[in-house]
Design goal:
The chain is built from no helices and eleven strands. By secondary structure, it is an all-beta fold.
């Protein structure tokens, strides 16, 4: 059974930084994309960033480009990170990681058939 566990969320002031981690266990496929998605209550889940496993190709949603950086543990490939800098109040959400059986360019939560497992989420709150 594939499990994902996120950590690293918290409360930070505008302009601050946080680093999220996602640990994947139980995955039997050698190659899969890991993505970060966020959702606020009453809003649709949106893609934040995704990263391939074989060539580290990445995808970022426009609103986080230049501020967020996704990476993946080079040795094990089972851990992904999301470094979030210059945080804004509009970044406040619950951040979930997920495995995706497709390229990072498929980083879209509506591609439901392409997703494997999801983590429970980590809350990020950015205060003004």
């Amino acid at each position: 059974q594939v499990q994902l566990v996120e950590s690293g969320g918290g409360l930070v002031q505008t302009g601050g930084s946080l680093r999220l981690s996602c640990i994947v266990s139980g995955e039997t496929l050698p190659y899969y994309t890991i993505g970060w998605f966020r959702q606020d209550p009453g809003k649709k889940r949106e893609a934040v960033s995704c990263i391939n496993s074989d060539d580290d190709t990445t995808y970022y949603t426009e609103s986080v480009k230049g501020r967020f950086a996704i990476s993946r543990d080079k040795a094990k490939k089972t851990t992904a990170y999301l470094q979030m800098n210059e945080l804004k109040p509009e970044d406040t959400a619950t951040y979930h990681c997920a495995t995706l059986y497709g390229p990072a360019t498929w980083c879209d939560p509506t591609y439901t058939a392409s997703f494997g497992a999801w983590g429970q989420g980590s809350q990020v709150t950015v205060s003004t």
